[in-house]
């Protein structure tokens, strides 16, 4: 289970909520502490004034009627009672209770020795709590009797907890709404940058991105735009240079062909003619390769299974042994013309060296895997990577009828890597060679 969100917006929201909860908890505990102190002062002041007023009233009441007066003075929250002793509840005086007794004695203008205080759960802190009422007070009257007062204090903890929880939920909801909208606007340039980088890495033409957002994001977009411009210029210059070289080779090749026409027809001249034919073919192949590299093809969502099946059907119509059994629709965002060209080169190699090509297509959540297997002799492990280099042919005769120009796998690798995929070779256990192509799905759309 992932605790930290993966997206930047999610992390901003989570961090904001965490900060909100922490601040609310700190504020709640500070408020509860200050509230207890405030209630303590209010209760002590009101209770002291009420008890002092009751004592003054009793001074004018005959002893036989004092019990009825005390009963009449009692309220639901503050009850009075006359007794001969303060009671067992006041036998142990805590430091906090003694402090309250001094404060009450000053407010009531009586001697502190005549006063006893017992603290209940309403005003007590820590281990000094007594079971029962919030606060009990006993004061000795002039006649020797004790006036007991019991102050009942409602417990607001539950009400404050519910109020704090409601405040927290409302604040969190408003904060999430604001942060989600703000973070999505802030991270939108980042998402656009990720999509553009993915498309540019696949070989697509990408327009310069608008430089907007926070300063760090603007700098990243500026760096990407500069990198895109430099790479595009470099690739264009490289393509023009190779195309110019291949084009300029036509003139000396043509001149050498004309000179061969005036030489005697023997093995040497025929060998030279074949070499010139290979050079001309390589030059034309290079020009074709460069034209295809510079051709801009937009990506679109295609059924890769139908594309492969249609290509195999063309081979079967010409009598070639190409086998493919489609198992269902496989949707993939790609450049279909380039994919078809790469598959043609691989299938041509499979038919040239193995006389039979078997294609399998498997669909996955993250990528699509296409395998082309032949029945040929395979190749050595040391040549697995070298065969992808331009103009590399493992066939020793160097004949175009048997080995081509050596650009087929180079073009296929360029196409696959232009889609952000991978291509590799592996020798089959029963003989033959397997070309495995892995094309990732485009998650930026």
From TrEMBL:
A Pfam match: HAMP
Alphabetized SUPFAM superfamilies for the sequence: ATPase domain of HSP90 chaperone/DNA topoisomerase II/histidine kinase (SSF55874), HAMP domain-like (SSF158472), Homodimeric domain of signal transducing histidine kinase (SSF47384)
Membrane topology: Multi-pass membrane protein
GO cellular component: plasma membrane
EC number(s) from the headed UniProt entry: 2.7.13.3
GO molecular function, one term: phosphorelay sensor kinase activity
InterPro entries (UniProt xref): 2C_sensor_his_kinase (IPR050980), HAMP_dom (IPR003660), HATPase_C_sf (IPR036890), HATPase_dom (IPR003594), His_kinase_dom (IPR005467), HisK_dim/P_dom (IPR003661), HisK_dim/P_sf (IPR036097), Sig_transdc_His_kin-like_C (IPR004358)
Alphabetized UniProt keyword annotations: ATP-binding, Cell inner membrane, Cell membrane, Kinase, Membrane, Nucleotide-binding, Phosphoprotein, Transferase, Transmembrane, Transmembrane helix, Two-component regulatory system
Class in the EC hierarchy, top level: transferase
Top-rank lineage group of the source organism: Bacteria
Transmembrane domains' residue ranges: 12-31, 160-181
PROSITE patterns listed in its UniProt record: HAMP, HIS_KIN
Domain HAMP per the UniProt entry, residue ranges: 184-236
Keyword DNA-binding (UniProt): no
Reactions this protein catalyses: ATP + protein L-histidine = ADP + protein N-phospho-L-histidine
Repressor found in the keyword field: no
Record domain Histidine kinase: where: 244-443
Compartments (UniProt record): Cell inner membrane
Protein name: histidine kinase
């Amino acid at each position: 289970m992932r605790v930290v969100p993966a997206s930047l917006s999610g992390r901003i929201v989570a961090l904001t909520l965490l900060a909100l909860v922490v601040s609310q908890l700190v504020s709640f505990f500070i408020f509860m502490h200050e509230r207890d102190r405030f209630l303590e002062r209010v209760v002590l002041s009101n209770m002291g004034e009420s008890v002092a007023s009751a004592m003054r009233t009793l001074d004018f009441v005959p002893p036989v009627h004092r019990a009825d007066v005390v009963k009449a003075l009692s309220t639901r929250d503050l009850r009075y009672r006359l007794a001969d002793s303060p009671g067992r509840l006041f036998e142990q005086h805590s430091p906090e209770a003694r402090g309250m007794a001094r404060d009450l004695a000053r407010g009531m203008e009586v001697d502190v020795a005549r006063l006893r205080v017992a603290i209940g759960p309403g005003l007590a802190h820590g281990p000094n709590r007594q079971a029962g009422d919030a606060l009990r007070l006993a004061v000795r009257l002039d006649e020797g009797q004790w006036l007991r007062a019991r102050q009942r204090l409602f417990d607001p903890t539950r009400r404050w907890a519910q109020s704090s929880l409601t405040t927290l939920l409302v604040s969190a909801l408003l904060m999430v709404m604001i942060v989600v909208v703000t973070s999505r606007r802030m991270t939108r340039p980042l998402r656009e940058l990720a999509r553009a980088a993915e498309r540019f890495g696949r070989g697509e033409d990408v327009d310069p991105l608008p430089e907007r957002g926070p300063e760090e994001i603007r700098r990243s977009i500026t760096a990407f735009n500069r990198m895109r411009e430099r790479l595009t210029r470099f690739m264009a210059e490289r393509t023009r240079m190779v195309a110019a070289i291949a084009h300029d080779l036509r003139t000396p090749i043509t001149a050498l062909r004309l000179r061969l026409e005036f030489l005697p027809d023997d093995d040497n001249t025929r060998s030279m003619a074949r070499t010139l034919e290979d050079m001309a073919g390589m030059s034309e192949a290079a020009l074709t390769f460069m034209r295809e590299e510079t051709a801009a093809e937009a990506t679109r969502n295609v059924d890769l299974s139908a594309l492969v099946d249609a290509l195999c059907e063309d081979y079967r119509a010409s009598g070639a042994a190409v086998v493919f059994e489609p198992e269902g629709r496989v949707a993939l965002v790609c450049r279909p013309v380039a994919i078809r060209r790469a598959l043609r080169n691989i299938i041509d190699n499979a038919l040239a060296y193995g006389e039979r090509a078997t294609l399998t297509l498997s669909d996955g959540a993250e990528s699509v895997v296409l395998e082309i297997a032949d029945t040929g002799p395979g190749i050595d492990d040391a040549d697995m990577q070298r065969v992808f280099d331009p103009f590399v042919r493992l066939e020793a005769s160097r004949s175009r009828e048997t080995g081509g120009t050596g650009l087929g796998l180079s073009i296929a690798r360029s196409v696959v890597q232009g889609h952000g995929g991978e291509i590799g070779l592996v020798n089959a256990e029963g003989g033959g060679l397997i070309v495995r192509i892995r094309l990732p799905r485009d998650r930026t759309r």
